[in-house]
Amino acid sequence: MSKRKTERLLGLVVCLLSTRRYLTAEQIRAAVPGYPEGEDVFKRMFERDKEDLRDLGVPLETGLNNPFDEEAGYRIRQQAYELPELHLAADEAAVLGLAARVWQRAELAGAAAGALLKLRASGAENSVDVPAQPDIEPRLGTPEPAFGPLWEAVRDRRPVRFEYRAAGRSAPQRRELEPWGVVNRRGRWYVAGWDRARQATRVFRLSRIAGPVKFSGQPGTVTVPPGTDVRELVKDWDSAPATEHTAVLRVRSGAGVGLRRGAATVTDGAAPGWDEVTTRYGDVGWFADYAASFGADVVVLEPPDLREAVIARLKGALT
Amino acid sequence: MSALVTSTERLQRLLTLVPYVVSRRVVGLTETAAAFGIKERDLVDDLNLLWCVELRSPDPYCPIDLSYEGGEIMVSQAESIGRPLRLAVDEASALLVALRMLAEVPGIEDRSALTRLIAKLEAAAGEAAAASAQLAVQVDIHNGDGYADQIRQALEQGRRLHLRYYVPGRDEATERDVDPMRLLVVEGRPYLEGYCLRAEGVRLFRLDRVLSLTVLDTPAALPSDVEHVDVDAGLFRPSEADVQVTIELSPAGRWVAEYYPCESVAELPDGRLRVVLRTPDTGLVRRLALRLGEDGKVVSPASLVAEVREAANAALANYA
Does residue B234 surpass a pLDDT of 80? Predict the structure, then answer.
């Protein structure tokens, strides 16, 4: 960190906020101390400063004071700069305090803390004070390293490239994606967007992205189709297939508690020591795995393909 | 001053610090340093920097005037930076996404405050709020909803709960009395944190595994030395007493590494994985091994390898 740079940037902000007219780079150099003598060095430094301010969200405007001006100038309109007045009721302030804790230690934690400080600084709340241990604590984690770059890409509308290991695949594949949104569903992060190679809408799970996510284009080059609902895209992708099959099972009395919870019918004592359970399922493979996990406490009677799948699973455990 | 703070981060702080003081007229150094999470010495450095800012137009002048005598800060001249900068896209998104997540949390009774606050923030953030729509959070609420309301009620009234709770590792329905402490939502799932009288300790209960729940007339009596689970350190911290299990997974079995907290994950040839995890209950791993079939092999400990074989043989005998 350089103190001189902070001073210069602060001077630049105050200077551009105080002017109604656009100031040329030369006028700015005359007003704000800290810029170097050399023309090229000055230009480079001024460019970087402008970029730094824009990154902070400072609305830097470029324009001409009159149509005959040869060189564009800069200013910051007070109205565009200022956080609008915000008055919060006590219950709203309490909820705000809770919301600011959600990202604790996760990717957007710093942004949430910064936002809360700005709201405090605007005097919106003098009473956001959350008890040290509120009786409800929601948290969002972002353990996947892909979250940061993907969120930036969505925010700045840039395409990305990454290696992805689809479920069951032995090797990762390169994907190029125009990301439309990042979604957390049931505790897992997903990115949805347009897969350029496959020319289709695709959803990817962040935890299956191998290696770094790289930007593959400039900001502003991704267009999200109007009416896109990223949540719905992920929901459709993630949803279990419709439960259109029915299994008939023998379940040992007192066992298979998990299976019985979702059962359609349970007939106690269908055979000595056994109950008969019928239950609906969608995917044969998935349900066979589940039934196999109960070991000798569950026997599949019907249908035959499910029965065979369970036997194959159990034999597989012996190899 | 932390070396990790960049010039722009410090600028951001300064631009917030001025309105923070202005909106309060007079405010203590200690209190302000705490609000910004910095040392008092660093705050004094910030104030000195602000006070020293100079512009030439064309004669030099100081746009900001302030004092902090006797530990009380006052800004008498803030020129054009008396109000905070608008929320940046990340900032607006962080709050709005968190608020929308809260709106999905079962048992939140303050829905009207949430809705009002979201509307106010969206209005204040303007364009910066737009991106937040592309970051969505959905909380898993199946089966947990009604229970969450009952838990909030028990928390407010300080009453004990009776749970029938499913333990998948043992495929067992357990009965227990629990003194509720908090409702947590971590990684999209709601949990009850409570003192379990049966286990004589603080336990977390996943709401989707609660088979039934009753709020008892008995008042809750939490032990005085009871400690909250540190949510941010991860909910599942294996204990040294747990059994260490090594499993080799085929590509189709890789999901195990995503669903279970593993101590180590090593890539093997052909997209296979070797994971090491710790479990207090080998029954859970035995079930997992049966479910994985040829897609997951328990490699160690030897006793568990034998246990899996025995269980698979017993199950196959049912089909003979």
Answer: no
User: Count of CB atoms within 10 A of residue B113's CB?
Assistant: 20
Answer yes or no: do B114 and A135 touch at CB < 8 A.
no
Q: Determine the pLDDT at residue B113.
A: 87
When scoring B4, B120, B212 by the number of chain A Cβ atoms within 10 A, the one with the most, hence best to mutate, is B120
In Å, what is the CA distance from B44 to each residue of B5, B17, B50?
16, 11, 10
- Best of B230, B318, B319 to disrupt the A interface (most A CBs within 10 Å) is B318
B40-55 mean pLDDT: 92
Three-class DSSP category at B67? strand
Q: Tell me if A3-81 shares its fold with A147-238.
A: no
ipTM for this prediction: 0.81
Domain definitions of chain A by residue range: 3-81, 90-141, 147-238, 245-316
Whether A292 contacts B291, CB under 8 Å: yes
Structure tokens given for A270: 């269908």
Helices B302-317 and A304-316, interaxial angle, to 10°?
150
pTM (two decimals): 0.81
CA dihedral B38, B42, B43, B48 (to 10 degrees): -160
Would you tell me which CATH number, out of the four given (1.10.472.90, 3.50.30.30, 3.30.1490.20, 1.10.10.10), belongs to the domain A3-81? 1.10.10.10
Q: Which helix (H) or strand (E) holds B31?
A: helix B29-36
- Mention the CATH class of domain B7-77: mainly alpha
CB distance A311–B8 less than 8 Å? no
Q: How many CB pairs under 8 A join A and B?
A: 376
pLDDT at B227 over 50: yes
Once rounded to an integer, what is the mean pLDDT over residues B133-138?
A: 76
Using the predicted structure, report yes or no on whether residue B1 has a pLDDT greater than 50: no
Rounded Cα–Cα distance for residues A92 and A114 (Å):
18
Q: What's the distance, CA B134 to chain centroid?
A: 21
The number of helix segments (H) and strand segments (E) in chain B equals 9, 15
Across the interface, whether the CB atoms of B172 and A168 are under 8 A apart is answered: no
In Å, how far is B241's CA from the nearest CA of chain A? 25
Confidence of residue A43 (pLDDT cuts 50, 70, 90): very high
pLDDT band (50, 70, 90) for residue B2: very low
Query: Rounded to whole angstroms, how far apart are CA atoms A15 and A33?
Result: 11
Domain B243-317 has CATH 2.40.50: no
Q: Is the pLDDT of residue A89 over 80?
A: yes
CB contact under 8 A, B19 and A52: no
pLDDT of amino acid B41: 94
Whether the CB-CB separation of A154 and A179 falls below 8 Å is answered with yes
Q: Which residues contact B119 (CB under 8 A, 6 or more apart)?
A: none
User: Rg of chain B's alpha carbons, rounded to an integer?
Assistant: 28
Q: Which CATH architecture has domain A147-238?
A: Roll (2.30)
